[in-house]
Write a structure and sequence with these properties.
The protein is mainly α. Helix content is 75%, strand content 0%. The chain has one domain.
């Protein structure tokens, strides 16, 4: 199997796992904040991943620390924002708006990473922004703060995507994800008193979230080594229909015609931006 094919398969599989994780985020009782949900998820990744790194320490020694830390920081922020957005706005809207990050990845690639950006990038960016505005103003009962938080996850996530590609040149996928875990714990550590709210059922749900995102992110980081940052990000388009569909079926999240129009505009924008060619590939 070609390396590029492996990359595509693993990224698509990671999308399925993280969509399942998003559904579980929404299933956590409201007494547990989004900050604690991401704290538990990142702590789970460290508890599972650090012993693995220790056992494989001869093969998994961290390298290019600067970009590894940048990946960790810029990965933890959008992940935190996404968890909050799911809590506020629901699985479908949070997934839709946060998945705009391929477009922002392409824009950052042009300005900061010496990548070409033709008209397709700018057209895609306009479509995504316009589509987001339509979703914001769809007349539904969704939480505006949640929508803004989800879009912010996409804005920062575009930069995180670029740093995945760079960090994976010298590091294994597990090390790259654990860098996110370290920063995720540090950023959200203030929520640790909420541990007193956790019962057995909630603990099981949180563990499911941790497992879904741990495996999903590790194999996503693996895939990004073999597929360009922007092209790989576009493969995450699968998350949008899955998130919207399961959000509506499982949690009865409302949709209307304007939400549909905005969704189509965003998906089209991401697809158009993917037409660009990257110098670094």
């Amino acid at each position: 199997m070609k390396d590029s094919t492996k990359g595509i398969i693993t990224i698509l599989l990671s999308n399925l796992l993280m969509t399942a994780g998003a559904l579980l985020i929404k299933a956590v009782p409201e007494s547990v904040s989004g900050f604690y949900r991401i704290l538990f998820t990142c702590a789970f990744s460290l508890v599972i991943g650090v012993p693995i790194l220790f056992v494989l320490r001869d093969k998994t020694r961290p390298r290019n620390i600067k970009f590894l830390l940048l990946r960790g920081f810029f990965g933890a922020i959008p992940m935190t924002l996404f968890f909050l957005a799911v809590s506020y706005s629901g699985v479908g809207r949070a997934t839709l708006l946060s998945t705009t990050y391929p477009v922002f990845s392409a824009v950052y690639g042009y300005f900061f990473f010496k990548e070409r950006a033709g008209a397709s990038v700018w057209i895609g960016a306009i479509l995504c922004i316009a589509g987001s505005v339509v979703v914001f103003r769809d007349g539904g009962s969704a939480n505006l703060i949640g929508d803004i938080t989800a879009l912010s996850a996409g804005v920062v996530g575009g930069l995180a995507t670029q740093y995945i590609k760079i960090a994976r040149r010298d590091n294994d996928s597990l090390t790259v994800y654990l860098a996110v875990g370290i920063f995720g714990v540090a950023i959200n550590l203030f929520s640790i008193p909420e541990t007193s709210h956790i019962d057995v059922n909630t603990l099981l749900i949180l563990t499911g979230i941790g497992a879904s995102f741990f495996v999903g992110n590790v194999i996503m980081n693996y895939g990004f080594r073999y597929v360009g940052a922007t092209r790989a990000a576009v493969l995450t388009l699968l998350k949008i229909p899955l998130g919207i569909l399961f959000g509506a079926v499982v949690f009865s999240e409302p949709m209307n015609i304007w939400f549909g129009v905005g969704s189509v505009m965003i998906i089209a924008g991401i697809a158009v931006a993917a037409m660009k060619r990257e110098v670094t590939e």
